[in-house]
Amino acid sequence: MTSSAPFLLFLAGFLLVPASAVFPAASTFIANPWLPFKNLSGCRHGQDWPGLAALKGYLRHFGYLPRSNFTDAFDDELQVAIRNYQRNFGLSVTGELDAATVSQIITPRCGVGDFINGSSTINGSAHGRHLYSYFPGLPQWPFWRRDLRYAITAASDVSIDRSVLSEVLARAFARWASVTTLTFSETDSEAAADIQVGFYLGSHGDGEPFDGRLGTLAHAFSPTDGRLHFDAAEAWVARGDVAKARSDAAVDLESVAVHEIGHLLGLGHSTAAEAIMYPSLRTRTRKVELASDDVEAIQNLYGSNPNYQGGAGSTPESIPERNGPDGGRRRWLTILPILAVGLWWE
């Protein structure tokens, strides 16, 4: 046997092994679906550029464009959409696809739109210096449903131990409970749960299909729907330092969970980059602490936890009438039952 025989035997053996046993599944090689938008950098009004139709689809998904019959023309409608996008993300409002805008567009983010039914869920101009927002119509959990139960209803598509999932979700819910009057507890009964949490791949029956690794990370529905869905294709990090993760696509699960719970409670997106409710999250980043913008937004809906020691948010008695379309009416809803009891006692 020649000196090359061992190598030839190794090569023959290698070729006889099924490819699926040697290489990871194809889905593990899926890159950010929005990376091709990098090729649009520098594109401006009046130009025709391959890929603009796909970008228009992206902008329509998040509420910036109203129709779906798109071309590769950089038309007036696209310019307006890009300007609105730049305002919402604190970028220079150029109306062009400059490098900063393209970089923001390809950043992984929440799947909830920035405009819903024509109304912005990200522009906080109605709240003065504050940048938070609410869903159209101000949906919220009613006062008789403040002790909310959640259940993990679908987790077979994600390789995270169930006990670890429970730990992460408990911490995420606790962050909101610590600043407001809501409480949360996990239940094993889906039927008894107010909130259903699941991990899904691709199309999963709610009309909002996931797009593989990166792209949209998760989405949740406004009160009192109660659905919170994570994209099971993500390289989720549930324990350890996400910044030291081996994968460049690593995403911190708790960071995304805290954000999506905000939607479950009625919060829209915020233009404050430091806020939990800011729409995007870069990979290998941990962001779990509620900012003052988040605290004030949630306390305006549900009041303040009596044990909350922070000074960022408003208490129920100090909610200004400018917050929310019903203004100060929520304070009267709190006071009226007390008055009624007093009258009955007399």
UniProtKB/TrEMBL annotation:
Superkingdom as given in the UniProt entry: Eukaryota
One GO cellular component term noted in the UniProt record for this chain: extracellular matrix
Keyword Acetylation: no
Signal peptide: 1-21
Gene Ontology MF: a single term: zinc ion binding
Domain Peptidase metallopeptidase as annotated: residue spans: 137-304
Stretches the record annotates as Disordered: 302-326
Keywords (A to Z) from UniProt: Glycoprotein, Hydrolase, Metal-binding, Metalloprotease, Protease, Signal, Zinc, Zymogen
One GO BP annotation of this record: proteolysis
Keyword Magnesium in record: no
Pfam families: Peptidase_M10, PG_binding_1
CDD domains, alphabetized: ZnMc_MMP
InterPro entries (alphabetical): M10A_MMP, Pept_M10_metallopeptidase, Peptidase_Metallo, Peptidoglycan-bd-like
PANTHER family: MATRIX METALLOPROTEINASE, METALLOENDOPROTEINASE 5-MMP
Protein family membership: Belongs to the peptidase M10A family. Matrix metalloproteinases (MMPs) subfamily.
Entry protein name: Peptidase metallopeptidase domain-containing protein
